[in-house]
Design brief:
It contains six helices and no strands. With 125 residues, it is mainly α. It has helices spanning 7-18, 24-31, 35-48, 66-78, 84-95, 101-110. Among the domains are: 7-48; 66-110, no CATH class.
Length: 125
């Protein structure tokens, strides 16, 4: 992935075309950028008043919203000995949302909740 050009360069290119009335092709060559980028920056400057790059939305949207996280928090605080499958089952029954166990594990870990670890041992003697 290539990095975006600096705002300073974008501003200088747009200014050279709009204020100094130079041809965008000549300006692009002088600043060593593509002609299409220069035209795009000039158009954006003229229409919007700035040449800042668009903000991208990367990655997946989170499956759990804030209220879902709070539902998990409340359940784990009420039942600290609950296993991840139990938390998952409760969450899916309560919210009617299908999520995987890993999503629940990440949510509990992100909340920094301490879960009680029950040791399953055979009784001695």
């Amino acid at each position: 992935m290539t990095k975006a050009y600096s705002n300073d360069l974008r501003i200088r290119v747009a200014k050279a075309v709009l204020e100094d009335h130079e041809l965008s092709r000549d300006v692009a060559k002088r600043f060593q950028v593509s002609h299409s980028s220069a035209k795009r920056w000039v158009k954006k400057q003229a229409q919007e008043g700035d040449v800042n790059p668009k903000q991208t939305k990367r990655g997946r949207k989170p499956k759990l919203r804030a209220e879902d996280i709070e539902e998990i928090r409340a359940y784990v605080e009420k039942r600290p000995d609950a296993t991840y499958p139990e938390i998952l089952r409760y969450f899916q029954e309560k919210t009617q949302k299908h999520v995987c166990k890993t999503t629940i594990v990440r949510a509990v870990l992100d909340l920094n909740l301490r879960r009680k670890k029950t040791l399953h041992r055979k009784p001695t003697g």
